[in-house]
Each structure stands twice: as C-alpha cells, then as structure tokens.
Amino acid sequence: MTIKIALIQLRVVDSKEKNLKNAIDLIRIAKKEKDANVVVLPECFNAPYTADTLLNVAEEIPTGETCRALSNAARDFGVHVVGGSIVESCSGRLYNTCTVWGPEGDLVATYRKVHLCDSSLSGKMTVAETKLFTAGSKYATFTVGETRIGLGICWDMRFAEFATAYRTMGCDLLIYPAVCDVPTGEQHWELLAKARALDNQAFVAFCSPARDTHAKLIPYGHSLVVDPWGRIIQRATEFQEIVVADLVLKELTDVRKRIPVFEQKRTDLYDLKVGCS
C-alpha cells in the first residue's frame, strides 16, 4: 500500500464561496491529474484568519455548507479529503475542527483542536483562540488501507507528547493543517515537522495556506512532508500550489528496526507524578 498525499496550499480570500470553489477545483486536480489518494486542506481554509471573519463562517458539522461541499468532492473524485479546519458551531460553542471525508462522501473522522493558541511569539496577537474557541479533548484517527493516520491542527504540533500518543496508537502518518505567520514559520516550521517525525519515526505533513501579504495574519506557506528519517521529501513555495508526495511505507519498518527507540523508552520514569530523589 502506497499513500500519495497532496497538500493543497490555497490562497484564502475574503469570500467563503470563492474559497470553497477554489478548494474543490484543487481537490479535483490533486486526484484527477496527480493521482493522490489523500488530499489535505489548510487550517481555516474557508475564511481569512481573523476573529470577525471566522465568526461569520461558523457552521454545524456535518450539515453546513463547507461540509456538504467537501463530502461531495470526496465522493465525486473518489478520494480521502482531510478538510483542513473550519469553525464548528455546536450547542452554543465554537470549535476549530478538522473533518475527514471518505471516498464515498462519508464523514470518517472529526477532530477538534486540543491546544488553542494564545501567543505573542511574532510580536502581536492576531487571534486569541481561547477567547473564540472551546478546546477539544479527544484524539482522532482514520485509516487509508492499513495505514492509520492521526490528526492535529497547527498549535498541536508543538506538543511532543500529543504526537507520541498517536504513535503509540499505531499511527504512521501525522497530518497538521496549520496557519503559521511568517516570522514564526521562518524559525520553527521545518524544525517542528522534523522533530515530530524523528520523535515518532513517522511521516509528518504540515499544510498551510498560501502567503497573502495583505492579510492580517500573513501565512508562512511552505507546506511540507517529512519522512521518518527527518528528511523533507516535498516542500512548497509560498504561493498557491499543490504539493504531492509518495509515502514509501516500508521505510517505517527500516527506521524502527535500525533505531528502536520505542522499545528503549523508560516510561516508568516519565510520569511527572513520580517523585525524585
């Protein structure tokens, strides 16, 4: 089994309708022209990443406009669609939520962002997520063939324990739709992707929107795929494009055999409730 993953680095504009049309067009190209069997969209791909615009595009899952469009695209093109993330409205609360749609248009996974981002790392706060969203509290996985895939969203990439939990569950690929600003991306984007891949001897994919220099939060771009050795196997520019990578799954066995760190872990020492002497 080979996974051909396509990261859709689309340019997000101030129109939900145009963003959805662009996303569907690019999903079609990823499947029909590039033969991908897993297609990934960025975080908050249907609206610019500002509090006002995100509030305006909130919808219920799975009945909302974006969900219906993604379900139809997955079914029409016969492909798994990792729908980046959208603002989910549920019982009076908002969540930053990733949906995954199977080749028959069925909803196969839903993941609500666990680690919400309140950060001034780049010198300014664009969206204080804890004031807008409720944090999720569950992991989410889905399978393509025999490959189990774990989901995170943007800020989740900074938490090594979170990724390792997915690896412990048997995940071989971790996918993170994300919106990262340029100053932070220049320092941490590749480093975090490589670290999560090396930590867990897994494939890792980060999917960003394309760069828009007129946006309030200017996305870094440079969507990428990293292999279990920590090597970048595909990397986008900052512009709108589709990045496609063939994941050679037999590499997982080779890496894990040659460097058996998961067999050497001292989990008896890692619980912080254990006292020191």
Automatic annotation (TrEMBL):
Domain CN hydrolase: 3-249
Catalytic activity: 2-oxosuccinamate + H2O = oxaloacetate + NH4(+); 2-oxoglutaramate + H2O = 2-oxoglutarate + NH4(+)
EC number of the protein: 3.5.1.3
Matching InterPro entries: C-N_Hydrolase, C-N_Hydrolase_sf, Nit1/2_C-N_Hydrolase
PROSITE patterns given in the database record: CN_HYDROLASE
Keywords tagged on the record: Hydrolase
Keyword Hydrolase: yes
CDD domains, alphabetized: nit
The keyword Cytoplasm appears for this protein: no
One CC-aspect GO term: mitochondrion
Organism superkingdom: Eukaryota
Gene Ontology MF terms in the entry: omega-amidase activity
GO biological process: asparagine metabolic process; glutamine metabolic process; oxaloacetate metabolic process
PANTHER family for the chain: NITRILASE-RELATED, OMEGA-AMIDASE NIT2
Name by which UniProt lists this protein: omega-amidase
Organism placement in taxonomy: Eukaryota, Metazoa, Ecdysozoa, Arthropoda, Hexapoda
